Amino acid sequence: MSNQIIRDHKRRLLVAKYELKRMHYKAICQDRNLPNKIRYEYFFKLSKLPRNSSKTRVRNRCIFTGRPRSVYKLFRISRIVFRELASKGSLIGINKSCW
Fold first, then answer.
1. Cα–Cα dist 83/57, whole Å
2. Which of 58, 62, 82, 98 is 20–30 Å from 3 (CA)?
3. CATH code, residues 60-99
């Protein structure tokens, strides 16, 4: 496994771990009915969470090659691997079209 795949997997685990806490803090920060002191306090708590626990830090990568671009979300594989597996018949329900 390449280092990028391992790093991305760790980020996904961190996102799952801190997801509820991050959503809670963000909701309090964005609530304008609360006093500013409380909002700033939770904004500070939000900034203390690990950076890699943010969803935007996760990169969709191919699970076979680690390729970061042109990855199908449904299969989590790149277009190149998808084409190889489809032509071999390894993907159930996917046929190479010919006309």
1. 28
2. 82
3. 4.10.830.10
Q: What is the mean pLDDT of residues 47-65?
A: 89
Query: Contact at 8 Å (CB) between 11 and 57?
Result: yes
CB contact at 8 A, 84 and 78: no
**pLDDT at site 89:** 81
- pTM recorded for the entire structure: 0.72
pLDDT digits (tens, 9 = 90+) for 11-47: 999 999 999 999 999 999 998 999 999 999 999 999 9
Question: What is the architecture, at CATH level 2, of domain 1-59?
Answer: Orthogonal Bundle (1.10)
For residue 40, the tally of other CB atoms under 10 A from its CB is 11
CB-based burial, 51-82: b 16+ in 10 Å, e otherwise = ebbbeeeeeebbbeebbeeebeeeeebbeebb
